[in-house]
Amino acid sequence: MLKRNPLSLAKTDPTSALTPFEEIERRFEDFFRRPFSMMESPWWTRWPGLAGEVSPAMDIYEEGGDIVVKAEIPGMKKEEIHVDINEKTVTVSGEKKKEEKVERKDYVHLERTYGSFARTFALPAEVQTDKARATFKDGILELRVPKTAEAASR
Q: Is the pTM of this model over 0.70?
């Protein structure tokens, strides 16, 4: 005789592969397997389901006489992204809008996030904001800003 598990037919939340408690439990177990992995990136970039917001991953590094900022912002147009930079900080912000208005869909799984975001970082050196250059290609924003003469000489 075929036995069925009544829970196997229960509908689950399509917006999450795991419940928040399952996700926390999984992260807790991961911590003991790789305790220093938590320092690799901010928690909100690793746990987008718990943060519930758009939060692009960003890298900032020095290359030659420039400070380079790279941000992963897939699915957006360059006109939807705003950059504010001064001598000490850079802010990347924007709003990722839903592609369509859906009243009802029978989603099996839904992960894509939409909404506003803003990330601000302190720059490792003072920069010449009037010489900043930006490119946006294949969902990657790249800013290159030359360091001031004083900062470059250090």
A: no
